[in-house]
Every structure is written in C-alpha cells, then in structure tokens.
Amino acid sequence: MNPITNSTLNILIAELGTECAQVQALINQLQLPSLTANQQAEILAELLAAAVHLHTHCVRIQVRGIDKCDISGGISQLWKKTCL
Q: Is 13 helix (H, G, I), strand (E, B) or coil?
C-alpha cells in the first residue's frame, strides 16, 4: 500500500487509532471479574459512545477518499488494520 500523503487523512487515521485503543481498554475493563452491575453499565455506555465515535471516523475517512469502512455491517478492514 502506498503511504498516505493527505495530512488531514493522516490525522483522521491517527485519531481512529486512538479511539480503537480506547475501545480495547474498555473491552479489557469489561472482562474484569469483580465489576458491579453499575460498573458494567457505565463501561457499556462508554463503549457505545466509542462505537459511535468510530463510526464518525469511518464516515470522515470515507469522505476523504478511503472507502474501506463497511458502515452498514461488519468490522471494517480499516478498523482491523488500525486496531488489531
């Protein structure tokens, strides 16, 4: 793959990577055995907000010319590449 030369797109992809790291941290927290129901609910709410934020990043990246986000369903190739 060729390097991305668009500075705005590079920023969007970096922000997407940061948000993916946040999602992974929330998933890790959710797997802790001693969480109360309220703690689980709070983490799930944060995870939902992060998912919306990831969707927004995918839309913004798609608009910038990288049509890799499968917004209608499944995990996008871009998300896999950035987060995994």
A: helix
